[in-house]
Amino acid sequence: MGVLTWKNGVYLLNGQPYRIISGAIHYFRVVPEYWEDRLLKLKACGFNTVETYLAWNVHEPKEGEFNFSGMADVASFIELAGKLGLHVIVRPSPFICAEWEFGGLPGWLLGYEEVRLRCSDPLYLSKVDHYYDELIPRLVPLLSTNGGPILAVQVENEYGSYGNDHAYLEYLRAGLVRRGVDVLLFTSDGPTDEMLLGGSIGDVHATVNFGSRVEESFSKYREYRTDEPLMVMEFWNGWFDHWMEDHHVREAADVAGVLDEMLEKGSSLNMYMFHGGTNFGFYSGANHIKTYEPTTTSYDYDAPLTEWGDKTEKYEAVRLVLSKHGFYPGCDFPEPIPKVAYGKVVLSEMAGLFTDTNLEHLSDPIRSVSIQPMEKIGQSYGFILYSTYIQGPRQGQQLHIQEVRDRAQVFLDGQSLGVIERWDTQPLDITVPANGARLDILVENMGRINYGPLIRDPKGITEGVRIDNQFLYDWTIRPLPLAPEMLASLSYRPVTDQGQVEHVELSMPKSVRAGLPGFYRGCFPVEDIGDTFLRFDGWTKGVAWINGFNLGRYWNAGPQKALYIPGPLLRKGENELVLFELHGGPESCEVELSDQPDLGQTAAVDEAVLNFVQVEEDK
Does residue 122 have a cis bond before it (omega within 30 degrees)? Predict the structure, then answer.
């Protein structure tokens, strides 16, 4: 498909002037059955290239165990893009940020206390090398120099926002070349002195990331690279959401205006994101600027295509600007994917987390004198349960969790004492009877930090638990990664009309079981398969699975009000839905599968957008 070079500030494809008009679609955020639909919608908008990150933690979820199948089949995604006539930019990095768990780094790295991330630390580099030895040979046949669609490969991602170890960048560059990568290599950083100084190296093409202030950003870039092509590797056309805040929306007219200015200046660009997709499973990341902020399951990003792949007003505004500059639709827009309302589903069975049988099925206990974080016991994602016995009597004291990451539910003899959260670490009042009591602390990993100096983010409890100033010792630790095969072993029992289980193995009255974590299961029939949306009205917080596939977290804290279920995850006939609800289900134990997203993620059409569209159509 051609070889990309540059000369005198212009990209050349097979020796002819060329401009990259790219949009970001992450294969690991879209079910494979929809890859073609999303890529065709990119092409139908006038784009000639697709860009994707590659997520290390998706491909090596456990050290030495690699996955390149299903949603992780990056080679098939790239091959499909090529067959559809699109060029490809890949960004293996190995750090990607992307609001993705740990910025794409695998959680098991933190099991090595001595490892230093994103620098020339020999241990870290050895782990990168092992991964690249598996990954890069899968990409080399797909390079444009070998007749494939990949035009360019990123060396590291926004490194100037993190460090300045140029020897590390040189090592990554040399490693790509040594493994056969002979297409254009590049870095991408923000357009500031600090970022360009720290993140770029002399013999690698530098690109910049920004969402506005085009003249100012390009001027700063030109202070460092006077003769290279202008390339905005990330044109931020929307933004992502954190739990407990409002949904972010950027007006289509504003995006169109900035895009128009970039193209007027002769720049190439990659629109981040063209289609955001979904943070399925436990892969949503987090930020920490002033406080810890976990990212929602939806990665809609207010992009030109919605999370579920529908066209927006922003899509139309972008298409018109691209057409104005000679980048016309390369195909027709695909037919809309049907959406189906399957109605109410009663979750008629429940498996309590704290029953001995279920805990045995879910986890093997580990005895430890002191608290250990997840990574020290070989766990990366999900939940972890810490249990110990406290001697009594203790009157009017306070329970402290020192460095909880990220959200802990505390139980004393099976009754809830309360919640301690990373962003609200107030202690809990505790009184222990004379005969002592059992203390259970269930901690949720809500996503490792994916950007900035605090990315080293071990999970669980990282320091200790104390009552007043006295640390507690002698713990039983149960990792709860909640893999699908573990859920299949649970013992469910019928739920009564009050939403409580008829019989459990805990020696406590039903009146105190309300609010305890448990798994709720229900089945529903499907005849016509289509996309649907799981509304969690009445439920509090937890994780949802459809037919064993982890849809991600839900939380009534908002802004997200429903989870997107792509049609390919359903099957004709009976389908199984499971919720791991952390605070006890509602009385009805019902959910709704709707054909309307109701996520607060579709911006109203405003007059500025309509006016812009009309002016461009008239031209």
Answer: no
